[in-house]
Amino acid sequence: MKPIPSILFPLLLLILGAAAPSSASHDYAEALSKAILFFEGQRSGFLPGDQRLTWRANSALSDGWTYNTDLTGGYYDAGDNVKFNFPMAFTTTLLAWSVIEFGDRMPPAEQRNALVAIRWATDYLLKTVSQPNRIFVQVGDPNVDHNCWERPEDMDTARTVYAVDAPNPASDVAGETAAALAASSMAFQSSDPGYSETLLRNAIKAFEFADTYRGAYSDNENIRGGACPFYCDFDGYQDELLWGAAWLRRATQGDTYLNYIQSNRKTLGADDNINEFGWDNKHAGLNVLVSKEFLEGNMYDLQSYKASADSFMCTLIPESTSSHIEYSPGGLIYKPGGSNLQHATTIAFLLLVYADYLSRVPQSSVNCGGISVGPASLRRQAKRQVDYILGDNPKGMSYMVGYGNYYPQRIHHRGSSLPSIRDHPQFIACKEGSVYFNSSGPNPNVLVGAVVGGPGEDDAYDDNRVDFRKSEPTTYINAPLVGALAYFTANPDPS
Q: Is residue 472 annotated as a catalytic residue, yes or no?
């Protein structure tokens, strides 16, 4: 290769600098604070006096009235005004897991804010399992909601309540709700033991419903029209049973749940789809979670979970012979389907959690087809994803709204894109919001901390409100990022 003429070095450095800004400039503590603040913009219900995103106001205060029950609260999942419990429960589990693993690395104020974010969800989830032999799985008709572009404060669309009564199954939503409540019980154990006990008691009840009446909630014809194609159970309900049991094992240390995840591993397909993790597929997270017990306790009956976790980690290492995870030219983990940053944040979180588990065992590493991968390597892989999101990418754009000087201005989000009720107190009807949706101007309300769906396989991003696959933020993108940012706040240069 010919040497590069010295006169070109300044130009080369300028090009490289524009393509990939230095991660040394990242303020992980600031990003963490904003990632948590985002959840206040997603709140449904009666907002408290200390609400920090003041362009939001009360909404959906009559949720549940058709069942003569209170179903107010919880989170809107993304840029719409529907409460989908399946992804909301997963979001809650990941927020709680973030606090369990990395809460002690958060600044105290942010640890409190993270617990507030968790509780906003768990207070609602407790309501959804408050009636015997029934679980509420969704509030709001998405087909009607998605036909409008209006603020949650103005909502006049049907707030349809979707409930599953025994013996109809909802193993996926009930299992994930059990996981969320069990994980949250651990997060609150020291700060609010009474609330922690309430959460755990209801987690056990939710899991009993999930396991007794087995099946997918979206197979129910009364639910399918509301859940699908948005949050159908595409990958089966079996993983949520193992996932819920694994969290109950960790929260209770009870042999009942240990026996469950040991004896049901094959029948519930623990070895299937082990390289996926998200709101619909829990396998990779399940294997990482259970591996902790194997690593620390030498419970050989759990060895297969550890083997599957190792296999997943190896797919993320480009040098590994088993590698098959795709990366964009700029280094972003890529999986087909849209909203790609959900994969980057969940995988980054799992990399950090697994690295921590391995680091507690002397000389522990992962064997990836002839190369040995240790905790430091896994952490570096995670850092590349987090830094990409914060601006180390070919566009030099932060994909977190409000972080850095260059971030998405036209996110696909009703409340953010419409004038706030404080600035425009007059009612904006369903179709009257279309002018704001179609506007080329920036959103008037900054949804600080929102991480958008992000670029695809070519690193391209056009900041277009209409392209929801790229421009819409979701709670389940942010939740695992909270944990990853907490880790890097305390350890900005992992080793």
A: yes
Residue 328: which of 392, 238, 246, 373 has the closest Cα? 392
Among 192, 219, 356, 463, the one annotated catalytic: 463
The model's pLDDT over 350-402, given as tens digits with 9 standing for 90+, comes to: 999 999 999 998 878 999 988 999 999 999 999 999 999 999 999 999 999 99
At 24, the pLDDT band (50, 70, 90 cuts) reads low
What are the extents of the domains in the chain?
Answer: 38-236+412-446
What is the spatial distance between Cα 360 and Cα 337, in angstroms, rounded to a whole number? 36
Kindly report, residue by residue over 274-320, the tens digit of the pLDDT.
889 999 999 999 999 999 999 988 676 899 999 999 999 999 998 88
Side-chain-side CA neighbours of 209 within 13 Å: the count stands at 32
CA distance 348 to 380: 10
Q: What angle do CA 370, 371, 377 make, to 5 degrees?
A: 160
Q: Cα angle vertex 343, ends 182, 73, to 5°?
A: 45
Q: What is the pLDDT of residues 441-485, one digit of tens each?
A: 999 999 999 999 999 899 999 999 999 999 999 999 999 999 999
Residue 148 near residue 431, CB atoms below 8 Å: yes
Asked if 412 is an active-site residue, the reply is yes
- If phi > 0 it is left, if psi is from -120 to 50 it is alpha, else beta; for residue 486 that is alpha
**What residue type is assigned to position 40 of the chain?**
E
One-letter amino acid at 279 equals W
Report, in angstroms and rounded to the nearest whole number, the Rg of the chain calculated over CA atoms. Answer: 22
Domain covering 38-236+412-446 in this structure, CATH number: 1.50.10.10
In three-state secondary structure terms, 83 is strand
In this structure, what is the dihedral angle of CA atoms 479, 484, 489, 494, given to the nearest 10 degrees? Answer: 180
Could you please report the per-residue DSSP string of 299-334?
-GGGHHHHHHHHHHHHHT-TTSTT---EE-TTS-EE
What lies within 8 Å, CB to CB, of 483 at 6+ separation is 94, 97, 98, 99, 101, 102, 349, 352, 353
Q: Which amino acid is at 335?
A: K
- Please name the amino acid found at residue 232: C
Q: What is the mean pLDDT of residues 326-345?
A: 94
353: which residues sit within 8 A by CB, 6+ positions away?
97, 101, 288, 483
Q: CA 479, CA 117: separation in Å to the nearest integer?
A: 10
Task: Report phi then psi at 25, rounded to 5.
Answer: -85, -5
The model scores a pTM over 0.90: yes
Q: Which two tokens stand for residue 67?
A: 């069942």
Question: Given 412, 413, 424, 457, which residue is catalytic?
Answer: 412
pLDDT at position 478 is: 98
- Give residue 120's pLDDT: 98
